[in-house]
Amino acid sequence: MAFDIAIYLNRIGLARVPTTVDGLVALQQAQMRAIPFENIDVLLGHIPNLTEDSIWAKLIDARRGGYCFELNKLFGLALEALGFTIQPILGRVRMGAVEGGPRTHQAFIVTIDGADWLADAGFGGPAPIKPLRIDTEELQAVGRDVFRLRADSASGELVVERKNGNEWFALYGFDRASALPSDFEGANFICARWDRSPFPSSLMMSVLTAEGTANLLNKDFSMIRNQTEETETLKTKTELQRLLSDVFRLQLPRSTIESLWEKLGSCGRV
């Protein structure tokens, strides 16, 4: 199918996007507000289909979310349709570790007026909500958060780090190695099936809101409101359904809610 940029922009609530840095920022943030990070299908035992038709059917027609390979596949198609110059890359997730794991996170290097930007609409949670300038080691403020790209001589990667209090927390590392469709297919399978991947065993959801970010890890929900974090633990299936509908804007079949709640009952057990 041909990528219909008008329908995509309507889905994320934008009228037009210039091929500028401001346009790139607006596009990433609009997708992160409209289409949540969620791994429901993987948690329920499915391997996401990364064909363009399947991504469109799920994220646009069915108004679902997805995890990085789905979200950034859609994001990349939109970037190309709009005329941005992009390079797909695969990063190594660290989440605080000294070293990264296998290459299992998709993102993009976007070149605008000779400058390179790391654009990523699919990491969720603690990730920056706007692109980061790649060719600088200076601190980069993103809303109330501060990030940096640190050169790691051991791995040859640039590491995306977020400042947590007085400490730096590593999110993922990346380099400029070319990534092919087969690389993303293999990484997608690893994320969906590997017993050391978090996605088959834990519910992970995130969406950008007007006030901050909403996150759900299994039954633990957190919401940033006016720079204050509010938390709660879901106790009933009805609370889960309300949260999915009202905050993440997902309208799921009752059978899916039933299966998801049953799965959450076993999450975290040894």
TrEMBL record:
InterPro entries: Arylamine_N-AcTrfase (IPR001447), Papain-like_cys_pep_sf (IPR038765). It comes from the Bacteria. Pfam families: Acetyltransf_2. Gene3D superfamilies: Arylamine N-acetyltransferase, Cysteine proteinases. PANTHER family: ARYLAMINE N-ACETYLTRANSFERASE 4-RELATED, N-HYDROXYARYLAMINE O-ACETYLTRANSFERASE. Belongs to the arylamine N-acetyltransferase family. This is Arylamine N-acetyltransferase. It comes from Sinorhizobium psoraleae.
